[in-house]
Amino acid sequence: MSDFVMDPDWLCWASNPVRPSFKVPPGAVDAHCHVFGPGARFPFAPERKYTPCDASWQQLFALRDFLGFERNVIVQATCHGSDNRALVDALQNSHGKARGVATVKPDITLQQLQHLHDVGVRGVRFNFVKRLVDALPKDGLLEVAHKIAPLGWHIVIYFEGQELPEHYDFFTSLPTTVVVDHMGRPDVSRSVDGPEFGLFLKLLQENPNIWSKVSCPERLSISGPDKYEDVIPFAKRVVDRFPDRVLWGTDWPHPNMKNHMPDDGKLVDFVPMIATTVELQKKLLVDNPMRLYWPEETK
Ligand code: 0GY
C-alpha cells in the first residue's frame, strides 16, 4: 500500500489502447516515456510539484510490446526529483532494451555517474518548465554539463516556447549533443512560418548538435484528439528539415494531462502524419535513437 495519494485532478494513463493502424518499423524505439514509482517502493520526491498514479516498468514494457516497439528511452520524471532509483530499477529490468535520461545535481560524483552509465543512463535532463521544477542556477547546470560530457552523454532540455529567447544563448553554449523535448512546446495557434517557431528552427539550423523530439501532440494541440491536426505542420516541418536529428516517443504515462488522456495506439498513428515516407519513419523511430542511445549496435 502506497503512502501516496494521486492529485485529485490527476488523469491516470489508459490501460486499454487501440492497436495502432501504423506498423512501426522493426527495431523501433519509444524515445520518451517515464515510470512513476510505484510510490510504495520508490517514494516520490518531497520537492515534487505533482503526485501521479503509479506507472511501473512492467506496465511500460507491456505497452512497448503491444504497440510493436522494441526499446524504450525512459526519462526521469520530475515527481522523482534527482532520486533516480525507479529509473535505475526499470533499466536493470529491461534486459538492455531501455536506456535512461536522469536528473542529477551538480555535486554528483564521477563514481555515481559511472554507476548510472553502467545501468544504461545516457543523458541528463535540464528542466525549465516552472510548473514542474524550481529554477536551477545555470552555473550549476553547466557544472553538470561538463561532468557528463566525457561520458559521451547528451542533455535533454525542456522549456516553454515563449521562453526560448531567454535561454537561447545558454542552450547554444552547452558542450554536448542537446535534445529538445516536444519541439520546445510551440504555440500551435501561431503560424508555423512565424517568428516564434522560426527561432526554434534557427536553433536547430545553426547548431548541428541540437536535436528535437517531435512528440507530444496531445500536449500542444488546441484542436485536440484523436488527430491533433494543428500540431502536424510543426512536427512535419522539423522532420522534413532535420530528418537525422529527430526522435519520437509516446510520453506514457502522460503526466499532467488535464483535459484528456491520449490513447497510445492513436498516438502511434500520428507518426506517419509527420514522417511521411518509409525512409523518414525509419530514421525517426530506429536509426536516430539507435545512434544516440545504442551507438555500439550501429557500428
Ligand atoms: C513530459 C511532460 C511533462 C512532465 C514531465 O518529468 C515530468 O514531470 O516531463 C509535463 O508536465 O509537461 O514530457 O512528460
The gyration radius over C-alpha positions equals 18 Å
| Poorly predicted parts | none
Q: Order of strands across the widest beta sheet?
A: 1-2-3-4-5-6-7-8
Under CATH, the topology can be stated as: TIM Barrel
* Percent range of helical residues: 25-40%
Structural class: alpha/beta
Count up the helices: 11
Proportion of residues in extended strands:
5-15%
CATH superfamily, called what?
Metal-dependent hydrolases
Overall average residue pLDDT: 97
**Which class in CATH terms?**
Alpha Beta
Q: How would you sum up the global shape?
A: globular
The ordered H/E elements are EHEHEHEHEHEHEHHEHHH
CATH architecture, by name, is Alpha-Beta Barrel
Distance between the termini: 46 Å
Number of strands: 8
